[in-house]
Amino acid sequence: MIYVPYSIMKINPAIWLTTITRFKATVALVKSRDMHWGLMSQKEYADINLSSLRMLLIADGANPCKLIF
Hints:
Helix 3 links the parallel strand 1 (about 25-30) and strand 2 (about 55-60). The chain has helices spanning about 5-10, 15-25, 30-40, and strands at about 25-30, 55-60. It is built from three helices and two strands. A two-stranded parallel ribbon has the order 1-2. The chain has one domain. It is α+β, with helices and mostly antiparallel strands. It is globular and about 30 Å long.
């Protein structure tokens, strides 16, 4: 599990995309706002590869999801 603090997301919104690429993550959980800003800023990065992703969970702060195990 890799957690990217919001303070770092404010500096580099595409950090979660580059982290997925670097560690070849298969599952990602991201807020809809962070996904929007990350995708807008990813044009600056040519080496982003999301082919390892098998599931992308998108959440927003207004409607948090509840995981039940």
